[in-house]
């Protein structure tokens, strides 16, 4: 006889509730496997998102037993307590239906944090690539922060986001930090203004839930601390 | 308040917290040392009356605590309520002045 998991899954929008299912437990089963089993065998109307199943696309993030995680790389035997799982949509985002959240507010904040690269020159006449010294300090800071997959786990884990809905959040600020360390970028002064103040890096309490939960093991809390340093220096020089 | 001034307030809060870390440590150690033989007003006043060192120390303590506390209170209010804008900044400034007045009066009482 196979062991059975008791899985409570969120159904409906913000006013919805949990529905319990019994799911057969298997070896090496991921939480995404469990959700897929429920959708295929037990509740075809269940809505959820996934794409790559291997931790690259960042679309399958949910809250599992209260903790935001990438479900495709989360093994059931690491997170189930007494054979029970509770699966909810990400926090701090509007629920569209079941396990699907509206990610628009999350990515709108990347725009507000001036996340996109701003070219500082057109392509040179000799058609050469811009050279960025690989061992440079700024390049290494950008390297350490740039592998974000945009899953929203940090945003869902951040208490400051839940208190201050205007707060840009760890992912958008981490993105801004990457671009602040791109020596080719021409939008750095405007970006620093965009990420300073009450809705920006200064709202961060350095509780570091983002760093603790990031599935890519990035360190958004340190990125935010870096932005605070840059912002302070700019304010001292009267350039903010 | 504009963005640059917000960042300056943030910086002032960080700087005052460094002074406070030192001042609180001195204050706590002094408290632990002096109450070993029981606590009496006479003993405290005998130590602080006419002492310029304690006058300077507690005056600095009061000033940084008033500044740090009022900026922090403003941040907490903004984070947990809908109150923003100039009225909140003025209220925080009033709190700062009140803390300074009460604190410096107490310091004066210790010194003179």
CATH-defined superfamily of the largest domain in chain A:
Alpha-helical ferredoxin
Whole-number count of domains of chain B: 1
CATH level-two architecture of the largest domain in chain A = Orthogonal Bundle
- What are the secondary-structure elements of chain B, in order, as H or E? HHHH
CATH top level label of chain B: Mainly Alpha
Structural class of chain B: mainly alpha
Enter the CATH topology name of the largest domain in chain A.
Fumarate Reductase Iron-sulfur Protein, Chain B, domain 2
- How would you characterize the largest beta sheet of chain A? 5 strands, mixed
β-sheet strand percentage of chain A: 5-15%
CATH domain fold name of chain B: 3 helical TM bundles of succinate and fumarate reductases
Mean pLDDT of chain B: 93
The most extensive contact between chains is:
A-B, 17 and 10 residues
Q: What is the first-to-last residue Cα distance of chain B?
A: 40 Å
Number of contiguous helices of chain A: 10
Structural class of chain A: alpha+beta
- Poorly predicted sequence stretches spanning 5 or more consecutive residues of chain A: none
């Amino acid at each position: 006889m196979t062991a059975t998991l008791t899985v409570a899954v969120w159904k409906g929008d913000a006013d919805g509730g949990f529905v319990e299912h019994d799911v057969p437990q298997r070896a090496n089963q991921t939480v995404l496997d469990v959700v897929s089993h429920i959708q295929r065998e037990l509740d075809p109307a269940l809505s959820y998102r996934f794409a790559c199943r291997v931790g690259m696309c960042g679309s399958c993030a949910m809250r599992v037993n209260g903790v935001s995680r990438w479900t495709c790389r989360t093994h059931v035997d690491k997170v189930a307590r007494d054979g029970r799982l509770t699966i909810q949509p990400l926090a701090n985002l509007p629920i569209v239906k079941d396990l699907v959240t509206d990610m628009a507010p999350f990515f709108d904040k990347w725009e507000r944090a001036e996340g996109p690269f701003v070219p500082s020159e057109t392509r040179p006449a000799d058609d050469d690539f811009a050279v960025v010294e690989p061992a440079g300090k700024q390049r290494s800071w950008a390297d350490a922060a740039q592998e974000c997959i945009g899953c929203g786990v940090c945003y869902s884990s951040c208490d400051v986001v839940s208190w201050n809905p205007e707060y840009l959040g760890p992912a958008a600020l981490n993105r801004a930090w990457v671009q602040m360390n791109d020596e080719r970028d021409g939008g750095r002064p405007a970006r620093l203004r965009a990420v300073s103040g009450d809705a920006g890096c200064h709202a961060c309490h350095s509780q570091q839930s983002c760093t603790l939960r990031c599935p890519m093991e990035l360190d958004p809390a340190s990125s935010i601390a870096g932005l605070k340093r840059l912002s302070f220096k700019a304010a001292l020089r009267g350039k903010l | 308040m504009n963005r640059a001034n917000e960042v300056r307030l943030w910086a002032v809060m960080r700087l005052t917290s460094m002074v406070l870390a030192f001042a609180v440590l001195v204050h706590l150690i002094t408290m632990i040392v002096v109450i070993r033989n029981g606590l009496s007003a006479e003993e405290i006043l005998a130590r602080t009356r006419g002492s310029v060192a304690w006058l300077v120390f507690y005056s600095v303590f009061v000033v940084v605590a008033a500044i740090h506390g009022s900026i922090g209170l403003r941040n907490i209010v903004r984070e947990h309520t809908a109150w923003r804008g100039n009225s909140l900044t003025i209220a925080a400034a009033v709190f700062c002045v009140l803390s300074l007045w009460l604190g410096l009066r107490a310091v004066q009482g210790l010194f003179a």
